[in-house]
Structures are given as C-alpha cells and as structure tokens.
Amino acid sequence: MSSSAAALPEPPSADEAKKRRLALIGGSLGNLVEWYDWFVYASFAIYFADSFFPGDNPTTQLMNTAGIFAVGFLMRPVGGWILGRAADRHGRKSALTLTVTMMSVAALLIAVAPTYGQAGYFGALVLLLARLLQGMSIGGEYAASATYLTEASAPGRRGLGSSFQYVSMTCGQLLGLGILITLQHTLSTAQLTDWGWRVPFLLGAVFAVVVFWLRRRLQETDAFKEQSADADAHDDGTRGTLRALWEHRRQAGLVMALTLGGTVAYYTYTTYLTKYLVGSAGMAKTTATLVSFTALTLFAVLQPFAGMLSDRIGRRPLLITFAVGCTVGTYPIMTALGSASSYWSALGLSLLALVIVTGYTSINAAVKAELFPTRVRALGVALPYAIANALFGGTAEYVALWFKNSGRETMFFWYVSGCALISLVTYVLMPDTRNAALSRAEAGADADSPAGGRPAPAPADAAH
Prior knowledge:
Number of strands: 0
Helix content: over 70%
Strand content: under 5%
Number of helices: 22
C-alpha cells in the first residue's frame, strides 16, 4: 500500500453488519434450543428418576439417570466425527440444520417414553436411545456452532462473537430451569413426578421446529465459501476427514487437554449444583433451583464481557486465571456450599465459582476454532472436544454421586481440582490464538495493515 490511510481496514458495510448480527442471533438461538433439550434432562431428573428405575434409595435412582446422562456423552465423539465431517465438506449451515432436527426427535421420544410401571425397563431403553440420539446431535452442534459463530465474527471481535455460544447454552439451561420453577409453583410434587416432567420435553420438540426454519435462512460463512471454492478447483478428497485431522494432531491434543478442566468444572457448577445443594446441603428443591437459576442468569451476562476482554488482552490470561482459580478454589467452595444454609450464602458461593469458570467458557469456542485451518476446523473442534467431554464432562455428575454414595464425597472436589491443574499446564505452554487468521482474506488484510498493526499468521490451509 502506498499510504497508511489506504491500509487501514474499512468499517463493515450496513449489509455486512446486518449479516453478522443475523448470523449471531440465528446461531445462538439454535444453540439455545439444542442445549435446552440437553440440560432439561438433568434439571428434571430429580422428578422422573423413580419413574424408570424402581427402588427405595434416591441416590441410586439418580445414579441410574446420571448413568444414562453420561451414556449420551459417549455418542458425542460419533456425532462430532460424522457431523463435523459434514460441516467441513457441506457447510456449517447444513450441519446446524441437521443437529436441531435430531434433537427434536430425541426430545419427543423422552416426552412419550413409558414408565417402569407401564412397560418395565422398556421405558428406560427408550430413554437411553433418546439420550444416544441427543448425544450424537450435541456432538455435532458444539463444533458447528463454535465454528460458525467464530467464522461469522469480525476478526477483532471473535472473542465476543464466540462468547455467545455459552450465553445461548446457559440461556437454554435457564429456560429449562424457568419452566421447572413455573411447574414447581403450579403443580404439586406428585403431579410433577407423575406427568409434569414430560412438559419441558414436549416444548423442546416444538421449539426445535421453529429453530429448524430459522437455521434454513442462515448464510454460509465467508471462510467456508473460500475453502469450498478452492476445493471445487483442487479437491484432494481430504476435507473434514480423519486423515486431514491427523495432520493437525498436536492441535487436537491441545483441544482435549484445554477442555478437560473446563468441562468438569462447568458441569459441576451447573448440572450437578442443584442436586448437590439438595442432597448434601439439605436445601429444599425449590430453593436450590432458584439458586441455580439466579447464578446462571448472571453467569450468562458475564460471557460477552469476558469475550471482549480476551479480544483486547488475549485468550491465555483468561484461561490461566480460570485454571488457577479452579485448582485452588474448588475444595473450599464446594465444602462451603455443602453446608450452605440459606439462599444468599449458596448464591454467593455459586457465583464465585461461575465467575472463575467464565475464564474458560467465554472463549473456549474461539480458541479451539482458531487452532485449525478451515478444511478441518469443524472436525478438529468436534472430535477431540467430544472425546474429552465423553470421558470427563459427561461423567462428572456420576463420579460426584459415586463418591457421595461411597461416603467420600470430598474426593470429588480434589478430582475437579486435578483436572483443572492438567489444563493449567496446557494453558501455560500453548500459544495465544487471538491473532490467528481464519482465512486467506483475513491474512491478506492483516498483511496490508500499517506497521504496528495486529500480526496474524496465514491460515494453515493456505496451500491447499
């Protein structure tokens, strides 16, 4: 460029700004419904556990439902592989549309599943099949939405844009908790246990139909269209394949290691929190649910601010802060929560934990997407993340209940801290990804920026 003025990036046009807003809204709302269906299972488990698993021990019944919850995670690597490949070969939009369709069918199956009294363990089998389908859907949803939200954001605002993944995930859970609170105040406990727990699953199936229509109207990202055009001219058949992912196995290993601590902490302080307050602190179900609802509301509000902060100072400072806080803070926070006697004390401790977790949740989608080239980005995010979740995130609640049932509940606190410590080492050693270019167009724009501008490496697939 002959002048620095000509080198400065032009502000986005009105059409471009509108396109990015619609992508953010469409991707987020679809993600909200996906995760509403996923989390509502955990939120309502305390009411339907004895409908599928007879017995006199509530902890054992919850362990059975938690086991099926964990089994759903085992399908996430399968979904991550199949749908991640589809997103890399056929587009982020088509994968997002398929995932929400699968989730709708799964929610409907749970809503109509017969109880043990009606069909013996056949009802539990239907529950299991529905969770497997949900797991496959979520395995692809995480990668497709993480990739879509990151690619659709402006280069200097990817932390902010990708933070809406956990905003929408959390809002999905809040929607489920809000419906739970409403049903708790309009139905008796007997009615909730008998049939009321089916209502949120029926609503989830309806919500998904609306989102299907919405996602059909989304536009594909520029990064994928650039890669797709290249592939049309020079297709080597490896886009979105395990062979292509193997070429980036170091990045895949990083995704697994950086996910380990974050996913265990997230599920501990979200899906397991209500059960912990009821079973260990002796809090009433309605009070524990209200604590979770309020804490998660504030947690969702925090995500964009943390995302914006990462756009200014980088991703690693937030990740390291999370890992240090979780490593040293889990035991005292969980111990104090176990003896919390009031709504306000439980809320304060829950908020403290979720503020720490925000260092991971607000930016992990961007970090993972920024590690991979376009040709394998969705699969690279999906498969290693799903494996880490299947091994650690999905089993967190079951591990917690197992330690509780064996009389060594505090060992779970050390387990969470140990997982965070492993991720801490990863965060310290890994590079900061904030300046990564997701396409050749971005790399070229940064190359044309004036001296002192933000450096950005060329995408790894530039030669392909």
